Amino acid sequence: MSTMKRFALTFTTIAAVLALAGSTPTAHAQEVEVQGPLAGAPAVVGLRIYRAMRFQVQLHAAMTLQDEFSRTILPGGQLMFHPTDWLGIGVWGGFGLSIDSSTTDQIAKIGQTSSVNVLSLPNRNLFTEQLGRIQWMAAPQVSFIPLRGKLGIFEKLFVDTDFYVFGGVAFVGLKERADVDDTQYNACAGNGTNLPNAITCFSSTITRGQSSRVAIAPTFGAGLSLYLADFLSMSIEWRGMPFAWNTSGTDESGAAQGDFPDKRIDSADHLPHFNHMLTLGFGFYLPTEPKVSSVED
Predict the structure, then answer these.
(1) Rounded Cα gap, residues 112 and 123, in angstroms
(2) 184 inside domain
């Protein structure tokens, strides 16, 4: 076959393919209309609607994580109302119980007092009394429940479950070392005439001084609820609260850049911390019977 004939045959084939493709009708998706007894029926019938138009009263215990010097256990509760099955409005709170970390125990046992800045660690035996601690916390918040289903345990036991996220504003009651500077140390030292007793004097009168304040911070997190009964659930959640505070009660910064140590402990020594915790809670719902979806819903 000559080159010209092969070219003509190829061109004719391509043209035929393009013409066929151009004449093929475009496929369009169309809605399938269900007729008979299932027409207009919801995707799920007999679904337990655990949250809609119900109050949730929860008792919980939270524990802070990755603390440097003092871990906090917060027993408390939560009160929440759910206008719909996917939205909740309420308040979370707890009171703090402190447990010193192993780092704190080691400092109190073998820590060295500072010869450069006596404000930082004037007496290792009293170190635990100058630590920052969480005393209480209250957080108005909104919950959003985007997912729900069943959780299978060993393919034998199935529990109704939902996943939720939340956000709000946290009011955190803190107890920190009170503001202090080296004026008190100089007074204890008698302006240099009584240096051997200066640290002992300063430690007994100043180190123990603490003050309380309220830190305001955003709070957010996510959790999982397992419904053990129509009126009872168990929840596991993570919560974050970024705010600045002085966890060690030591001289950590200066008011001006490069001004450290400034021989002063005040708000300039509040360092940013990403505080977070885990919470285990048991929630009780009122009314005790959830709504169950039907064909009419």
Answers:
(1) 8
(2) no
Name residue 79's beta-bridge partners. Answer: 57, 91
From the list 87, 92, 90, the residue with the least C-alpha distance to 52 is 87
- The span from the CA of 130 to the CA of 8, in Å, is 95
Q: For 79-101, how does the pLDDT look when each residue is reduced to its tens digit (9 = 90+)?
A: 999 999 999 999 999 999 999 99
Q: Which two tokens stand for residue 81?
A: 């109302």
CB of 244 closer than 8 Å to CB of 238: no
Q: Is the pTM of this model over 0.90?
A: no
Determine the 3-state secondary structure of 284 from DSSP: strand
Q: How many CB atoms lie under 10 A from the CB of residue 88?
A: 22
Structural domain range at position 159:
41-114+131-175+213-250+273-291
What total of structural domains would you count in the chain? 1
Cβ neighbors of 196 (< 8 A, separation 6 or more) are none
R_g (Cα) of the chain, nearest Å? 33
Please choose, from the candidates 139, 144, 137, the residue with its C-alpha nearest in 3D space to the C-alpha of residue 223: 144
% of the chain with per-residue pLDDT over 70: 71
User: Quick one: DSSP state of residue 203?
Assistant: I
Closest CA relative to residue 88, chosen from 225, 180, 201, 215 = 225
Asked, for residue 199, whether it belongs to a domain, the answer is: no
pLDDT band with cut points at 50, 70 and 90 for residue 202: low
Q: Where does the chain have alpha helices with state H?
A: 3-23, 102-110, 182-188, 198-202
Q: Which of helix, strand or coil describes residue 174?
A: strand
Of 88, 60, 61, which is closest to residue 233 (Cα–Cα)?
60
pLDDT in tens, 96-148: 999 999 989 998 888 776 656 667 777 787 888 889 999 999 999 999 999 99
Length of the chain: 297
CATH of the domain at 152: 2.40.160.20
**Model confidence over 221-272: pLDDT tens digits?**
999 999 999 999 999 999 999 999 999 988 888 766 556 677 788 888 899 9
